[in-house]
């Protein structure tokens, strides 16, 4: 599924959370330290809770190694050892490549539950997956010009200092200081925030058509929260910013990335089916996942972060 196995652990932990009763806790990548603070183990998924008067401690270990073939019996032996050493009530092994025959026999003998996450074609999901792509609509903006407006009552020396301070500074330069946070920001960043907070600005803008030029006037009447420009003669308050920019809407089809089934190995019974659509937003890899539970027929939709772009 991915090089680190995080997608597999994320899928399994999410599905198991949906099946667990209230009061159970699910942890992933839990590190175990000895008395000297040295790590002696790391558990992929650990489930803890109380069932009746019994404390349940359940270990789920995941294996996603396509190049190494079916999970061998030696892996099952390791899990038996973990169960004994760390006193788990139950241990489950999940593999994306199935299990070797001797591994299956040994797991059955030792009471290690076997599950598999396997890839299926979209045709196997025909009874509930009604589309194989979806449109991602992205509002886009481009700042052409930002005019900073100060009080008309400012003296000529202060106005001249203001002009000299902002002269030659691009809209991406951090020249505006917030009196509320003290942080320096650029007119470009302020424009992006204004656009994000006012989606109605895109009303009438057609997807995948030439952008619309807009003029946006933003006033800052609040004496406790506005912008200033620091100059050699002191801070000068910004009363208004007049933005001129282009607004457009981009529509990108997001194709189906993967369809997998999570189920029991020995009985062949499915636990869930998952269809995932991967895309990027805000420099982050994101997966839109649809999980259909075999037991209830419910479909759960979740957005999952897969990491930063380029990582």
What does this structure look like?
- The mean pLDDT is 93.
- The protein starts with 5 loop residues before the first helix and ends with a strand.
- It is α+β, with helices and mostly antiparallel strands and 311 residues long.
- A hairpin with a 2-residue loop joins strand 10 and strand 11.
- The protein has 5 helices and 15 strands.
- The protein has a 9-stranded mixed beta sheet, with helices on both faces.
Helices and strands in order, then pairings?
Elements: H1 6-19, E1 25-33, E2 39-51, E3 54-63, H2 73-86, E4 90-95, H3 101-110, E5 113-119, E6 133-150, H4 156-166, E7 176-178, E8 184-185, H5 187-197, E9 212-219, E10 227-231, E11 234-255, E12 258-264, E13 270-281, E14 284-293, E15 299-308
Write a concise synopsis of the structure shown.
With about 300 residues, the chain is of the alpha+beta class. It has helices at about 5-20, 75-85, 100-110, 155-165, 185-195; strands at about 25-35, 40-50, 55-65, 90-95, 115-120, 135-150, 175-180, 185, 210-220, 225-230, 235-255, 260-265, 270-280, 285-295, 300-310.
């Amino acid at each position: 599924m991915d090089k680190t196995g995080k997608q597999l652990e994320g899928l399994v932990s999410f599905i198991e959370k949906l099946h667990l009763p209230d009061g159970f806790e699910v942890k992933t990548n839990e590190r175990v330290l000895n008395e000297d603070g040295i790590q002696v183990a790391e558990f992929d998924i650990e489930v803890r809770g109380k069932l009746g008067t019994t404390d349940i401690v359940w270990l789920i270990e995941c294996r996603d190694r396509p190049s190494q073939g079916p999970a061998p019996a030696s892996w099952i032996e390791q899990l038996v050892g973990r169960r004994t050493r760390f006193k788990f009530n139950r241990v489950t092994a999940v593999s994306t490549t199935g299990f070797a025959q001797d591994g299956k026999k040994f797991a059955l003998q030792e009471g290690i539950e076997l599950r598999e996450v396997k890839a299926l074609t979209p045709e196997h999901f025909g009874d509930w997956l009604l589309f194989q792509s979806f449109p991602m609509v992205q509002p886009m903006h481009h700042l052409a010009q930002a005019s900073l407006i100060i009080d008309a009552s400012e003296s000529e020396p202060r106005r001249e200092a203001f002009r000299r301070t902002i002269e030659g500074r691009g809209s991406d330069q951090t020249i505006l200081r917030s009196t509320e946070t003290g942080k320096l920001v650029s007119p470009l960043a302020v424009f992006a925030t204004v656009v994000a907070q006012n989606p109605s600005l895109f009303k009438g803008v057609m997807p995948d058509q030439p952008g619309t030029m807009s003029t946006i006037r933003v006033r800052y009447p609040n004496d406790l929260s506005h912008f200033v420009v620091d100059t050699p003669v002191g801070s000068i308050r910004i009363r208004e910013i007049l933005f001129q920019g282009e607004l457009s809407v981009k529509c990108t089809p997001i194709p189906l990335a993967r369809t997998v089934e999570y189920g029991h190995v020995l009985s062949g019974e499915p636990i869930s089916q998952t269809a995932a659509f991967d895309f990027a937003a805000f420099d982050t890899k994101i997966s839109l996942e649809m999980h259909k539970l075999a037991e209830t027929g419910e479909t759960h939709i979740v957005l999952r972060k897969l990491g930063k772009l380029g990582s």
